[in-house]
């Protein structure tokens, strides 16, 4: 970061708007009827019935003029598309990984990785679970083990790197099952389920040494790498003079394999990849990708999509871009917190997370307070958010018991380059209005519970 950038306080956007998408404005009655039809699950709302859509930052960002131009440069050859080569060169240049296998999105990469690396009875430690990641580990016969620091499970703790690994937990796992039963350690940058919280460079370096000692590779879930790199630049000693691009490259260099949901950081509407440095592993991944995704030079992606992705990667690590992106999230978080609404602290990189347990203390976790809160915010304001609590956590694969995670959260997730500061003000007002009348919100019970990843399609009714 240059001296000039450091002096500048504003997070204003480094772009202007060329085209707009018109939105439907709805009434409270419209929204009450819509949420009832959706079974109190914001995933089942029609997007048309939503005013400000903060369900997710996945595939919802605005592409730049350059990315849209890239679509016209699509080389839709079945094999060896020009855009594939552009993509793999870009991945190596910005992320360091030598071999890249495109996939249709992040879980496509997780599926292939889990199938080629996990044996039945293995354990996979990670800095908190992610829904699809853990499911693919379990489908391959593995068991996920949470090794994130305890502070990550406490919404009020202001640790600057809540994504850090607790080495005592890793040591205990090796002690219990042996290093041979651990095919890899999975590390997410800017841990989604912890509230968009970063891992520090020091912790990652220590993990590199630990993994070298135990001969265990590191898999990097790099879905939100740029945001993590920005927090390191802002918070960690010794990194303030480095650019986000340099820090991002260094993070990747400390890991062996990566899964990417390109729908986040690199701002494309669809896409992902599995990347690595080991040639043998690459060959095995190529064998799998032809079964489940497509030829190894397109995976699940069209040529044009690979081109937009290659361009998006270069834009995603610009200091000005990421400062504005995280700055907007912090702006929303500050507005909400100033009104006394309980949120996860520090504010994360991609979203503001409301602490539903303290927001709705009258609703027991068995009645899914975060799910109920998400529905109430929609009815109040037309803002769509997402439950990240007991519904998302699902059931233990062996006992069938509901997981009851400490974090019972509602996520207000900001798409990149999509909404304005006034939209953030409307969102904050809506949340605060629900907070002032929190006693009116009622708990929920299932009327339909899908077997896997239940949060996507479950239906509820008020208790
Ligand atoms: N890893 C992380 C950390 C994610 O946040 C996601 C997706 C994935 C993997 C899977 O990628 O959706 O492309 O298959 N997260 C989205 C979200 C769905 O809303 O947080 P995918």
Description of the molecule:
This protein has 463 residues and is an alpha/beta fold. The protein has 2 domains: 199 residues, Alpha-Beta Complex (Aspartate Aminotransferase, domain 1); 252 residues, 3-Layer(aba) Sandwich (Aspartate Aminotransferase, domain 2), CATH 3.40.640. It is built from 17 helices and 14 strands. The strands form 5 sheets. A 5-stranded mixed β-sheet has the order 2-8-7-6-5, with helices on both faces. Helix 3 packs antiparallel against helix 12, helix 5 crosses helix 11 and helix 15 packs across helix 17. The longest helix is centred in the C-terminal third of the chain and has 20 residues. The chain binds ligand F0G. Ligand F0G binds next to helix 5 and helix 6.
Please state how the strands of the largest beta sheet are arranged side by side. 2-8-7-6-5
Structural class: alpha/beta
Q: Work out the count of structural domains.
A: 2
Span between termini = 53 Å
Rg, Å, rounded: 21 Å
Number of strands: 14
Helix count equals 17
Q: Tell me the overall shape.
A: globular
Q: So, CATH architecture of the largest domain?
A: 3-Layer(aba) Sandwich
CATH topology of the largest domain: Aspartate Aminotransferase, domain 2
Low-confidence stretches: none
Indicate the proportion of strand residues. Answer: 5-15%
The overall average pLDDT, rounded, is 96
> How would you characterize the largest beta sheet?
5 strands, mixed
Bound compounds, please? ligand F0G
At the first level of CATH, what is the class of the largest domain?
A: Alpha Beta
